[in-house]
């Protein structure tokens, strides 16, 4: 091979080796293009190498600002994590890799934006037809706001669009807003306000960030065109009735208020209904009446003047006392200053029914004003409540047509009913276990509705007031709560009373079983077996004695059983059982009955005499029998001889 070709071949090999080495060591970064992240998100940049076994990594920003992130190196890979992302992360980040004598760099831009919330719609006040209102569309915490666009729409029509093209010198989240002032019209009712915010994050990106908020328009119309109609007329006479009706337009529909103007200029509220009816009017009812239509955004008033013509004097109605159902009452109808009173007729009516009438057929001998009256005693009932008592005076004066021929007075009856039918409901029961709660509810009929008063009956007979509520509640009851509770229904005409006995029970406790004088006695002694229990109220006490496999119930008195002459068979186990509806408790004792000592230890004078006598009698009887036998053998017996024979 020629030398020239060898040189060329060697040179090409060197170039190929250099090329191979340069190709083997390279750097990659992920993601490959720029990152766009929202404040608060988390992002990671990954730098990796090939062709180098032990690369050395470093991260920095292009302008050497703080990384605001954490770096993690793993072999041929290095990751920069920013969590959470903030404005301080908006940089061009560079990854530098050193492999022996070689150094490579790769960079990636990170852009930051903030668009966290939907727009807010604020109104300067309620929307009222014909009155200007300012709408504010507010977009909070935006960055970069120079790429923000806000559009306000009413229905499908754009009202205003605004761009924010100014560039801020400082990186910061800012709140931007658009304001529009418009005057609502009837056609706006039911339409919607839409605030739409668009943030163009990337000029090349065709899909910008969009947020919007919708608010339905609630349009109001202030009351207007208020109208009053009067029937029969605005000019009335005493005793007449009048009905006034008021209407007013608006949205929402206005509420109607009727008032009367007082002499001091104040308003006296009369009614909240559209129709106001005044009955049996008097001269004092004359004046200016006002109707007012009111809704959320305004009010509209209308006035009417009523004139009630006065007569001289009307009849007077007097009651002997309060009207109480079932109690007689006397009604007096007086007609003052009458002349001439001949043929004067007085009628007393209840509703449309005549209760009593009287015509005064008297010869008028003198000219004077006199007072005439009519009295009636009747027993009112509850059905009379609301009825109108009418005292009507009629004076026929044919030749005096200009004078009124009749006058009347009215009074609405209100019949009181003394409290009655007072009842108490107890839940769950009037007998309770200690610790439970109880509700005692009292009701009482009457007019006016009776006031309820709860009390507790004390031992001295006094009442301790507890509550004025309908329901009296005792929680976590104790034995001390036992007693008599009193409910009183009270109104102005009477009192009705009801009592209930509350018993708080506890399971038997503090039971004691004793033997007096002792649990160990002798035959013939008297023993009292006594059982007591500390419960209040007392519990049932049963005394028993164990017998075989069962028990014999003893006839005890007040928990005591007396054994008058104890016998050995009275010994054994005695048991006391104390029980009530809540539970029971048992106690037992063992009675020991000892017998008397044996006869060899028993000594008395009578036994001594008997012993001595027996010691003399037995030898004497022996001697008698001996001598008798001897006498029989000799044919006779001599005590002297007997004595001699022994000598």
TrEMBL record:
InterPro entries in alphabetical order: ICAM_VCAM, ICAM_VCAM_N, Ig-like_dom, Ig-like_dom_sf, Ig-like_fold, Ig_C2-set, Ig_I-set, Ig_sub
SUPFAM superfamilies assigned to the protein according to its UniProt record, in alphabetical order: Immunoglobulin (SSF48726)
Pfam families: C2-set (PF05790), I-set (PF07679), ig (PF00047), Ig_3 (PF13927)
Signal peptide: 1-24
Membrane topology, as annotated: Single-pass type I membrane protein
PROSITE patterns the record matches: IG_LIKE
Subcellular location: Cell membrane; Secreted
Domain Ig-like: 2-105, 223-305, 419-503, 508-592
Swiss-Prot/TrEMBL GO biological process terms: cell-cell adhesion
Role of this protein: Cell adhesion glycoprotein predominantly expressed on the surface of endothelial cells that plays an important role in immune surveillance and inflammation. Acts as a major regulator of leukocyte adhesion to the endothelium through interaction with different types of integrins. During inflammatory responses, binds ligands on the surface of activated endothelial cells to initiate the activation of calcium channels and the plasma membrane-associated small GTPase RAC1 leading to leukocyte transendothelial migration.
Protein name from the UniProt record: Vascular cell adhesion protein 1
The organism of origin for this protein: Phocoena sinus (Vaquita)
